[in-house]
Amino acid sequence: MSYLALYRKYRSTSFEEVYGQKAIVKTLENALKENKIAHAYLFSGPRGTGKTSIARLFAKALNCEKGIGSICNDCSNCKEISEGTSPDVIEIDAASNSGVDEVRNLIERVKYSPTKSRYKVYIIDEVHMMSNSAFNALLKTLEEPPSYVVFILCTTELYKVLPTIVSRCQRYEFKKLSDEELSALLINVSTKEGIGYEKEAIDEIVELANGGARDALSILDQLISFTSDTSIHAKDIESLFGLTTKKEKISLLELIKNKDYQNLVSSFNNLVSKNVDLSRFINDLLMLLKDALIARKVNTGKEDLYLSLINKYFNDTEIARMIDILLDLTKELKITNNPPLLIELYLIKLIDSNKTIEEESKKKEEPVKEKVIVKEIIKEVKVKEEPKEEKNPTPTTIIKSISKLDPIFNEGKEDVFGNKIDVAKDGESYLLDQDDLIKLTVLSNKEAKKELMSRWKLLIPFKKDPKLEPFITLLLEGVPYLLTDTILVLSYNLSTRAKLVNIKENQAKFQECLAKIIGKNIKVYALDRVESANLITLYRNLDEVKKLPKAKDLNINDINFK
Description:
Layout: H1 6-9, H2 22-33, E1 40-44, H3 51-63, H4 76-83, E2 89-93, H5 100-110, E3 120-125, H6 132-143, E4 149-155, H7 163-166, E5 170-173, H8 179-193, E6 196-197, H9 199-209, H10 213-226, E7 231-232, H11 234-241, H12 246-257, H13 261-273, H14 278-297, H15 305-313, H16 316-333, H17 339-365, H18 369-385, H19 395-409, H20 434-443, H21 446-455, H22 469-477, E8 479-483, E9 487-492, H23 495-501, H24 507-518, E10 523-528, H25 529-544
Parallel strand pairs: 1-4, 1-5, 2-3, 3-4, 6-7, 9-10
Antiparallel strand pairs: 8-9
Helix pairs in contact: 3-4, 5-6, 8-9, 8-10, 9-10, 9-11, 12-15, 13-17, 14-15, 14-16, 16-17, 18-19
């Protein structure tokens, strides 16, 4: 007999063997006992949590020869359902049978009574893959099937299933298995297979499985094949799945604390050369910092050397700041095409963020230099412009004194601390009509936009230039929405921010800022959240009626950017 994967070999054969989903199992068992059988069920939830397994168990309980609610696994009906050969329990993969023709064939077969069972059960897996027309064809049959037919629909993406389908079914929401439930499952299977294990190895598998029983057993299966002896070890998991040890992560955090740029970059490059899973590495760092912060706030009664070290290296503010930066990094990783470069930049940013916190704490302890300078200037003005003998200064004297302080206190275009140029708040603005925006949408280069989004945070270092800082701050509030060779469209949550971008007086500075990361001058236009949503709707409507312009017929120079 060919080898059987662990997740198939140890699939639950009765409701008692099901791990997790206790509420669902209890509800179905009670329905069977009281003979309250619905005509349609909808099982939704994450992958590998038991949806199809419980659907098969329910089919067995409906058709077992010992009576409704029994699962003997000895009668011919139970055996055939287990082996997938029952003529009355039909499993359909909606991913490969998603069309309306397949559904019409199913409806035709529904008319025929079961061959040898009480109920004819249709288990439709990944039902969200069905087309709208297929769903609509199924509606009437799903609502009023023959008395001997039961539908069980399974999906991992409930939001893709039509509401009219959902409303015709009893809905059961499956949850991820807890760490304890997964650990119990892995230990049980390992014992039955005669495989030894380290507690740390089981914990690693649980973390990798992320609540999925099938994933956990698949990882265990792969690990058993990988290891050279009859036991599994944490080091084998780290080697097989490209994980980093806690010691490596703590060493990296220590380098961040010591502001050791050179060794930090070198250590990270060593991890890259070992083919470490970079997304998981960042997620592990986040989990470590989160656990350290919680351990500092809540006394769990458990001493952890690694968490103690983190709390020794960093204070609450530093840990919270690093968590914020790493959360930003996880978002950026989804759109970048060069993860190592992006992570390297963010690791350096972690050092710089802690430097900033230290500088801020020092400033609280020492007088601010700028304030001292202002006080000296005020003192000088008082001495020069308000001599002691002039007890009643004239209006002319007061005006002269105030004019000397204007450059310090005004937020105008001149600032004694850096010649700051502010963003213009009003003036003539650019305005693109709907036709031009549709043309830009058609001409937009998705790959170029992704590349720009991965480089967007590279604008941050240029905020040090006081002449560019307000413009870069405003740019960073927006999100690249459309990008052509000559025009960038940004999307903003607030219409007030979008209007500032579109003021013509500001355009030159925005182009100068973007040239820092793009390498060329490019025009900038902004939409607010409502305008962005309206543009999407218009684009889709034009696409449906086949009235979208063709990219080959358009010229970017025809866009009326005036």
